[in-house]
């Protein structure tokens, strides 16, 4: 595999101008399934595997799992802000620096898998409650000034879910784990 394929095993996220109700439902199902997929894949992995980078100069699987939990907690919060405020400006965070913090480099992945599991339960309840008007609600990212609709956010995090799952899955496949 090329480095680009290792970075983007399912390709880069491609935004659409709009999303059908069926696409939104499918994207919510992808988000919903992620914690179980990670738990099933990683349940028997020892520290040596968890401390293996999924690509050259990439995060370890441990850092990857903690990143996904951090990212999805932020996404859940951003969705709630967009549902309760008029186009709020969200608070960005430095994901690369968060991945270098001691807890991201050393904590047991079970902590983030359980965080992910319960955040996703709440997040999916919120997402499934959204109607067409809710899905059109927005927030602004201050780094770019770009306005994001919640239907696009849902699509982006469905992609993000599968993107990172495939990092761990393809590492396991390449190593016959």
Automatic annotation (TrEMBL):
Membrane-spanning segments? none
**Pfam families attached here?**
DinB_2
Q: Which InterPro entries match?
A: DinB-like, DinB/YfiT-like
Q: Which organism is it from?
A: Dyadobacter arcticus
Q: Which domain of life is it from?
A: Bacteria
| Name of protein | DinB-like domain-containing protein
Q: Where is the DinB-like domain?
A: 35-167
Q: Which NCBIfam families match?
A: PRK13291.1
């Amino acid at each position: 595999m090329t480095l680009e394929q290792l970075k983007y095993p399912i390709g880069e996220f491609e935004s659409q101008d709009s999303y059908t109700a069926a696409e939104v439902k499918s994207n919510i199902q992808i988000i919903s399934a992620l914690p179980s997929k990670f738990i099933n894949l990683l349940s028997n992995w020892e520290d040596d595997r968890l401390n293996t980078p999924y690509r050259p100069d990439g995060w370890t699987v441990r850092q990857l799992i903690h990143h996904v939990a951090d990212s999805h907690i932020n996404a859940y919060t951003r969705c709630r802000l967009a549902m309760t405020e008029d186009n709020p400006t969200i608070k960005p965070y430095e994901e690369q620096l968060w991945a270098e913090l001691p807890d991201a480099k050393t904590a047991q992945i079970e902590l983030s898998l359980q965080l992910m599991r319960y955040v996703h339960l709440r997040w999916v309840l919120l997402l499934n409650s959204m109607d067409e008007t809710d899905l059109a609600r927005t927030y602004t990212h201050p780094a770019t000034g770009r306005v994001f609709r919640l239907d696009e956010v849902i699509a982006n995090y469905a992609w993000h879910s599968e993107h990172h799952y495939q990092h761990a899955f393809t590492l396991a496949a390449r190593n016959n784990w």
